[in-house]
Structures are given as C-alpha cells and as structure tokens.
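Predict structure. Chain length: 231.
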Amino acid sequence: MSTAIVTGAAGGLGGRIGERLAAAGHDLLLVDLDPAVEEVAAAQGARAVVADLTSPAGVEAVVGAAGDDVAVLVNNAGITRDARATKMTEAEFAAVIDINLTAAIRLTLALEPRYREGAAVINLSSRASLGNFGQANYSASKAGLVGFGRALAQRWAPRVRLNAVAPSLVDTPMTQAMPPDVLTKLVARIPAGRIGTPDDVAGIVAFLASPDAAYITGQVIYACGGRTVAP
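Prediction complete.
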C-alpha cells in the first residue's frame, strides 16, 4: 500500500486532509511537532511521527517511517507570527520562514528517492502569498512554496507532480484565535459570504493527489471563496 504523508496533521485542517487521503486507500503517515498527532492518528487507524521538521533529525525520522512507496506528500505544517513589517523581529520572521517554507523544502527533497511513479506533492500555500498587511513573513513563506513547487515541477516531471492549494480564511484553531471583530471584517470581504471549512481545502488536496489530476503540475488552486477577485 502506498504512503501518504501529511505534515501539520495535529490540527483540524491536516487531520481532515488525512481522512480524505486514507479514504482513497493510502497508508497514512501523520506528522506534527505536537504529540496530539498520535491521538489523531489512532482515531484514523494511521501511523504518526512526532517530529520537528526544522531539524535534520526530524526530517530523518519522517523519511525513515515513510517506506519506499510514497505516493503523496502534503506540506501543511505552518505557523503565524504577525506584526507590522517595521516592528517584526528577526526571530519572528525567521521562525515563520523556517517552519512554513524551509522545513517543507527539506522534507520534499529528502523524500525524492522514495516517490513512486506518478506521486503528488501538494504544498499548502495561501491567498496571503499575494501579500497581506502585517504578514510579511507569512506572505513570503507562502509565496516561496509556490515558487519552489513550480521550479521543482519542471525538474521532476513526469515522475512527480507538484502543485499548491492557496486557501483564504479557513475555520481552524489558528483562525479561531483571531480577535472576533477582526475575523468578522475579514469574512465580510469574501465574495462567497462565509469562511472556508477544512473540507473545502481537503477536497482539493484529495483531487490533486488522485489520478484525476494526472495532467496537472506546477499549478496553484486558490480555495478562497473568490477573495482573489475582491477589492
């Protein structure tokens, strides 16, 4: 059975993506720095690795558990450290880049010998890759995932496909931690009239991981309720 790896899988979005991939018949490997990923994996009948992907040892732990038949890698792990660019510390900028972007690059490259023919790497970018006030670090990290994926899509085709999904606001613990008045204003700017759900994103990831997307590589799908076309 082929392996599907999902990072950042202790949260609601990563867990739901894992469920969709398991339903497609993959042997699921869930990865997170949070030990709660073990409970999520147990509930899904999946395997889990508690690992810090910013360290070589963490990446090696995932590669060791992955096996030799990796069909899907979903780079979902990410954090925010929001601040105005002029007030953002170097540590805040570096932490977001290291976890959101550099860790994903390390793991993607480390798994290269283990991808099966037709494997899919899916990077969780964001509509913020187009630029968000107060999120210079986050926007840079998510734009970097798009650029990295497009460059590698050319190098690894046709054996491995690389695509990105770029959500807007999604109803996850990270979003729920926002001040309610700020969240309400942001949702009001979404043409679809609502916040996104983990299912909205997980369905697109499952599609990109499937044979139905066999002719799609180097692309970005904006799952943002039309936010990219709104003022």
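Summary: The chain has a mean pLDDT of 93.
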